[in-house]
Amino acid sequence: MSNLMRIKEFQNNLCIWYFAHGRDLPWRHTADPYSIWVSEIMLQQTQVDTVKSYYISFLEKLPDIKSLADVDEDSLFKLWEGLGYYRRVRNMQEAARQIMDDYNGVFPEHYKDIIQLKGIGPYTASAISSIAFSQEKGVVDGNTLRILSRIYNRQDNIALDKTKKAYQILMDELIKGSSPSYFNQAMMDLGALICTPKKTNCEHCPVQSLCEAKAAGTEALLPVNIKNNSKTDLYYITAILKKDNKYLLIKNKEGLLENLYAFVQYEVESPISFEEAFYENYGVPVRLTEYCKEIKHVFSHRVWHMNVYIGEITDSGTELDDYLYSEDEIADLPVSTAHRKVYNLR
Ligand code: SF4
Questions:
Q1: What are phi and psi of 335, to 5 degrees?
Q2: Distance between the two ends of the chain, CA-based, in angstroms?
Q3: Measured in angstroms, how far is the CA atom of residue 211 from the centroid of ligand 1?
Q4: Residues pairing with 296 in the sheet
Q5: Which atom of ligand 1 is nearest to the CA of 208?
Q6: What are phi and psi of 241, to 5 degrees?
Q7: What is the pTM of this model?
Q8: Which of 102, 175, 178, 223 could form a disulfide with 11 if both were Cys (CB 3.0 to 4.6 A apart)?
Q9: Tell me: the pLDDT tens digits for 229-275?
Q10: 218 CB contacts (<8 Å, ≥6 apart)?
């Protein structure tokens, strides 16, 4: 069978199966790019079942790009409360404002423009451009990487960027000439329902006859997904956060410094990301005001690079009062050596 015929058969089998067995999800009833965008961003780090109700209420309150661009931050975060990773929705609002300014409030149609919007990566841009605008851009994520590894019986490590790039080309070949919207959504469902990570359901797979891993009996070995865990250097932003002459210290519940008190630190790349991560964790705004210096602390098998910032808790509430300590109190607290070095910078 020629490659083209294989592709046609793959598309037909997959889409016929999708019409009969695909999931009925709220965002599957629209081709509105804004709605699809909302669903895809919500789905990035949240389970499908959880997203359903959030999706509906978000669109009830903010039905279009303009309403998202205009809404105040508190109301916006309230709609996202419980979903976590608040940076997602903050980016969405920034993108909505970009669309208002640069596209007169109309969602851009082309992949190359969509991917320029804040917070939109290749997967989301492919999903929106294919589902809302019928463009032949295949979605590449854990599901489709796994399916392609098995269909082509390939042992490329899917944790590597070069594999993702190569599989993007494969996906873009496979989607050509199909209905891009149905094809991508069918691949998402095949990965979620049939060609799952642990237990494949090959008996009911619509593309079983075309699957090289199934023919070779290697489907349980694939995909190869080896992440490099040898990282020994960790880069943090560590914040000396102050309120009313007291300092914020948290007692570690686990990890390297269990039971010792420490300043808050996150593996993030910018002060604004720290502020967002802190808000996600504690629900209280803070502002980093000054960079101090990097402190390097060497453990037996790990090196911490702590980029220390001074900051303030800008909220007048009392939520964090239990974690605030005066200098006299800190003198009596068990604080790790690494964080004592940080404390001495103030
Ligand atoms: S036949 Fe099995 S391994 Fe191959 S794509 Fe279908 S479910 Fe996955």
A1: -120, 135
A2: 72
A3: 6
A4: 305
A5: 1
A6: -100, 130
A7: 0.68
A8: 178
A9: 545 888 899 999 999 999 999 998 887 777 889 999 998 877 888 98
A10: 150, 153
**Residues contacting ligand 1 via CB (< 6 Å):** 147, 150-151, 194-195, 200-202, 205, 207-208, 211, 213-214, 219
The most distant pair of C-alpha atoms in the chain lies apart, rounded to whole Å, by: 79
Which residue among the candidates 40, 136, 275, 312 is catalytic per the annotation? Answer: 40
The residue contributing the CA closest to ligand 1 atom 3 is 219
Helix (H, G, I), strand (E, B) or coil at 342: helix
- What does the block give as tokens for 288? 């980093």
Measured between alpha carbons, how far is 229 from 231 in angstroms, rounded to an integer? 5
Task: Give the nearest ligand 1 atom to 205 CA.
Answer: 6
Rounded Cα distance between 285 and 316, Å, is: 10
Concerning whether 212 is annotated as a catalytic residue, the answer is no
Q: How confident is the model over 179-196, as pLDDT tens digits?
A: 999 999 999 999 999 999
Find the helix packing angle between 180-193 and 122-131, rounded to 10°.
120
Task: Choose one of 202, 209, 222 to mutate for the ligand 1 pocket test, by most ligand atoms within 8 angstroms of C-beta.
Answer: 202
How far is ligand 1, taken at its centre, from the CA of residue 121, in Å?
27
* Chain centroid to CA 136: 23
Domains of the chain: 3-221 (1.10.340.30), 233-343 (3.90.79.10)
| Pick from 177, 86, 173: nearest CA to 138 | 173
User: How far apart (Å, rounded) are the C-alpha atoms in residues 297 and 293?
Assistant: 13
Whether residue 149 contacts residue 224, with contact meaning beta carbons closer than 8 Å, is answered with yes
At 239 the three-state DSSP class reads strand
Phi/psi of residue 239, nearest 5 degrees: -120, 130
C-beta of residue 190 within 8 angstroms of C-beta of residue 141 = no
User: What angle in degrees, to the nearest 10, is found between the helix axes of 161-175 and 3-21?
Assistant: 80
Q: Whose CA is nearest to atom 1 of ligand 1?
A: 208
* 193 C-alpha to ligand 1 centroid (Å): 11
Q: What tokens appear for 64 in the block?
A: 């279009």
Type of residue at 175: I
